[in-house]
Design goal:
By secondary structure, the chain is an alpha/beta fold. It is 37% helix and 15% strand. The chain folds into two domains: 39 residues, no CATH class; 162 residues, Rossmann fold. The chain starts with a helix and ends with a strand. The protein binds zinc ion (ZN) (2 copies). One zinc ion binds next to helix 2.
């Protein structure tokens, strides 16, 4: 490195001291993660259009969904929830780091973008107001806010509310999750016909299922489920 290029890189570093949010390595260009960390964020391979899990059939819908389709109309949750993705999403939930939220969402936003038929609005999975008061941060809201500005789709955090302060879903079995979340949400009168519900992680889909029921009852025809990561079993 010549003296002038060294000076230039030092000046750049001072003017733009962006670091990989995972390993703190300096970043180059517009990348949000260093190449080594980026490679460790694994996508679900050939995801099913309805459940987001790896699809072994030649169709875009997996055999399980053809047999017993979920209530919602589409799911996009590009990353596998494990390894570094899991560590970073846990960090996001507990650190309130907007920088991390921005890095994660910017890296994956292209998976939600398409040329036509965007949802009319993005609705974050709401926290109950008691929980929001306690935590001060709803990571689903932050993710939705960034996606909304990057994709140019309206953010709506008012139409859907959580009316029951339910026990945390983590650690509950699938059937207990369903019971726990029953009638926990309310949808204000709406003219939407097509929305996307946004969360950080899609686990069993019981929250998504319950909210989809609520939205369908309110007249929304097409509900997409968007998450950054899908819990997968290997
Ligand atoms: Zn890194
Ligand atoms: Zn499926």
């Amino acid at each position: 490195m010549t003296v002038s290029s060294f000076t230039a890189s030092l000046v750049n570093r001072i003017l733009d001291p962006r670091l990989c949010p995972s390993c703190q390595h300096p970043l180059t260009g517009t990348h949000k993660f260093c190449p080594a960390c980026y490679q460790r964020l694994l996508n679900v391979i050939n995801p099913c259009r309805l459940c987001g899990l790896e699809n072994h059939s030649n169709d875009d819908i997996c055999a399980a969904c053809l047999y017993d389709p979920p209530r919602w109309q589409a799911m996009i949750a590009p990353w596998q929830y494990r390894g570094l993705t899991r560590d970073l999403l846990l960090q996001l939930k507990f650190s309130e780091s907007l920088y991390l939220a921005h890095s994660l969402v910017s890296t994956i936003a292209g998976h939600f973008d398409r040329s036509s038929n965007h949802p009319e609005a993005l609705l974050p999975v709401p926290l109950h107001r008691n929980r929001l008061f306690e935590r001060g941060f709803n990571q689903a809201f932050e993710i939705t806010r960034i996606l909304s500005s990057q994709l140019g789709i309206k953010l709506d955090y008012k139409t859907l509310t959580r009316i029951r302060d339910t026990e945390a879903q983590a650690g509950l079995s699938a059937s207990k999750r369903e019971k726990n979340i029953l009638k926990a949400f309310e949808c204000a009168p709406t003219n939407y016909r097509h929305v996307a519900l946004v969360d950080d992680i899609i686990t069993t889909g019981s929250t998504a299922n319950e909210i989809t029921k609520t939205l369908h009852r309110a007249g929304v025809e097409t509900v997409e489920i968007w998450g950054l990561a899908r819990v997968v079993k290997y």
